[in-house]
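Internal tracking record. Fields below are filled automatically when a chain is submitted to the structure queue. Please do not edit lines marked as system-generated. If the sequence contains nonstandard residues, flag them in the REMARKS field before resubmitting.
Queue: standard
Priority: normal
Entity type: single polypeptide chain
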Amino acid sequence: MSLRNSANHYICQSYSDTMKNNRPLRKILQLINLESDIDEYENIHETIEKELVFKGTNLWILVFAILVASVGLNMNSTAVIIGAMLISPLMGPINGLGYSIATYDLPLFRQALKNFTFAVFAGLLASTAYFAISPISTAHSELLARTSPTIYDVLIAFFGGMAGIVAITSKKKGNVIPGVAIATALMPPLCTAGYGLATGQFTFFFGALYLFTINTVFIALSAFLISQILKLPIRGTIAEAQKKRINQMITVVLTLVLIPSIYFGYLMVQKEKFTENAAMYVENISVVEGNYLLKHEINPKTRTIQLVYGGTLLTEAQKDDILERADEFSLRDVNIEVEQGFSYSDLASRNSEVETLKAEINRLNMILRDRNAELTGISATREKGSDLLAELAVLYPEVSGVSYAQTLNYIKGRETPDTLALVMVTTKGKDLTGKEKELVGKWLSTRLRTTAVKVLFNQ
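SYSTEM-GENERATED OUTPUT FOLLOWS
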C-alpha cells in the first residue's frame, strides 16, 4: 500500500470513528443535508428549462403581473403589490442563468439571457405605458422605497434566491416559491423604473433599475452556488481557460453591483444613527431655563436640526449651551438652528398693541355712527319737505313748492346758536293773502312741533 493510500485510509477511518462516537453531530449533519431531498437531475433541468420560456401564457402572465404591480405602486397599496409578485414568472430565467453557469450549459445560458432580456423589456414597456396614461403621478412611499437600494437589498435577494433554488432542486417544493417571489420583490423595481421613464424622473429610473439588477445578480448567484454545492452534473464541455474567464466575469459583475450597495447601505446606517442621536438630543434640550421647545425638525439628509422655543427670551449664553450639548450625543458637523417662537415680553407688548388697536377701532366706530346719523338726518329732512308740500297743496292749491331745511341761528350775546326750521313756500299764479300766510305759519309750527320756524313766501 502506497503512502498516499495509507494516509487516505487513515483519514477515512478516523472520520468514520469520529462520526460513530459523536452521534449528536451526525444527527445535526443529517438535518442540514440537502442531498437527501434532492430531486432527479433531469427533473431539475426540465423544471428550469420550462420556466425560461416567455411566450404565450407566461408572457401574458408577466404583462398582467406588471400592470397589477403598477396599479399597486400608483395607489400605494402593499397588498396589491404582493399579489403582483405572487403571479410573476420573472424568477425563472434568473435561476436559469445561475444554473447554466454552474453546469457550464452555454446554450441554456444564452436562452435564459435572451428570455430574461425580452421579459425585462416587456415589463418596462407595460409599466411605462401604464404610468404614461395614469392621471395619478404622485410618488408614494411604495415607489420611493424602490429608488435607493442598499446592502440590505443584496442580502434579501441573496437569501431569497437561495430559498428559491433549494425549493426547485428539492422533491418537496411546497409553497416556498411564492414566498421567495415576495421576498426578492422583482416586480416593483421594474415597475418603478417604468414610472421613472414615463414621468421623465431618471433618478427614479436608474435607482429602481439598480435595485432590479441587484435582485437579478444575487438570485442568479444563489442559483449558481447551490448548483455547485449540490454538485449538479456538468452539461457542457468547456476548457479550463474559459472556466477561469467565466469566474473572473462573475467576480467583476458581483463587485460592480456590490460596492455601490455597500456605500448606500453605509449612508442609510449613518442617517439612522443621526436620526436616533438627534431624537435623544432634542428630548434632552426640550426645556431650557423657562423656555419650552415648541417645534423641532430633523433632516438627516442635510444633517440639520431646527429648534423653535417659546417662553422667556433666549439669551446668547443659553443658545450656546443648547449648541454645546450636541457633542454629548455624537452630533458633530451638524447645523443646529435655534429660533425664538415667542416670549412672554413679546406677549406683553402685543397686548399693549391690541389695546391701542381696540381704542382706534372704537374711535372709528363713533365717527361712522355720527356720519350715519348725519346721513339719516338728511334723508329725514328730504322726506319731511316732501310731506309738507303734499299737505300744503291740499290746503292751498296755489302752493306749488316747498323748501325745507334745518339751519343754525346765531344771535348776538349768545355763545351757542339756536336750531331754526327754515321753510320757503312758493306759489304759482295767485299769491296767498296775509291772513293765509299767518295761518300757514301757525300750521307749520304745529306740524313741525317747534316755535323756531322761519317762513318765507315766494311767488
